[in-house]
Specification:
Keywords: Cell outer membrane, Membrane, Signal
Number of helices: 4
CATH architecture: Beta Barrel
Order of helices and strands: HEEEEEEEHHEEHE
Organism: Paracoccus litorisediminis
Number of strands: 10
Strand order of the largest sheet: 2-1-10-9-8-7-6-5-4-3
CATH class: Mainly Beta
Strand content: over 45%
Distance between the termini: 39 Å
Helix content: 10-25%
Structural class: alpha+beta
Pfam families: MipA
InterPro entries: MipA
Subcellular location: Cell outer membrane
Largest sheet: 10 strands, antiparallel
Number of domains: 1
Radius of gyration: 19 Å
């Protein structure tokens, strides 16, 4: 599975790199939203209860041209992710399972912009709680309602290698002996599918309210894990964001 992820990443980078190099002289600005707020969703992968927690975001990266329009076609950009801790002390049903530290994820993302539609694929490596390879492929569509309100609809598949699925969905022999869960060794691959609706409402030219509603469903070996109490994983995020601009 790691080999397949690496091949996919190298292929995407090879396809995007010539086009990205060709556009360096055309791109005059990069901008993105950085914000913080609250999240209401499952406490861990497969949880059947929801809880409030902090939400940090860096999203909606836009590459602009000298005319001020978003750059069309391929681009290769950084990709970041974060997964919080999982402790059996916070969830009594997980008693006997190993605790998992928080994880930072870093990698690359390939975008293809065609008008208001964007297709993308991302690949990241975990540092901390898991050291696997994860990513997603998906598409999003932008609706500019007016000069203050912009909406995005999103559909994506999430992927993880064996190391990732073992960490969050597996049960080792020792964990099985210490808990009520049977031993389980899941394979990597597509582990979830998400659809979402995101909104950005501008309070000022640089400051906005961000909101996002996501419906996720765990699939395949991840969804069959004995740890999973509910395959459905809805989440709501709300926060304040600042638009950062960098000109070249």
């Amino acid at each position: 599975m790691r080999c397949l992820f690496a091949i996919a990443l190298m292929t995407a980078s090879t396809l995007a790199a010539p086009a990205s190099a060709q556009w360096i002289n055309d791109i005059s600005e990069a901008s993105f939203d950085v914000g913080a707020g609250i999240s209401y969703g499952p406490g861990y992968f497969g949880d059947d209860e929801t809880e409030l927690g902090p939400w940090g975001t860096m999203r909606n990266l836009t590459l602009g041209t000298e005319t001020g329009e978003e750059k069309q076609g391929f681009s290769l950009i950084p990709s970041f992710g974060y997964i919080g801790t999982r402790k059996d002390g916070d969830h009594k049903e997980l008693h006997g399972l190993d605790n998992i530290d928080w994880t930072a994820e870093v990698g690359l993302r390939v975008n293809y912009v065609d008008g208001d539609a964007t297709s993308y694929g991302a690949m990241r490596v975990g540092i901390g709680g898991h050291d696997g390879l994860v990513g997603e492929i998906g598409t999003k569509y932008r609706f500019i309602i007016n000069d203050k309100l912009t909406l995005w609809t999103t559909a994506e598949l999430q992927l993880g290698d064996d190391s990732f699925t073992d960490t969050y969905f597996g049960v080792t022999a020792d964990e099985s002996a210490a808990s009520n869960f049977r031993e389980y060794d899941p394979s990597g691959g597509i582990y979830a599918a998400n659809i979402g609706l995101e909104a950005r409402y501008s309070l000022t030219p640089k400051t906005s309210i961000l909101g996002k509603i996501t419906y996720g469903r765990l699939l395949n070996d991840a969804g069959d894990s004995p740890i999973v109490r509910d395959r459905n994983q809805p989440e709501i995020n709300l926060g304040i964001a600042r638009r950062l601009n960098f000109r070249f």
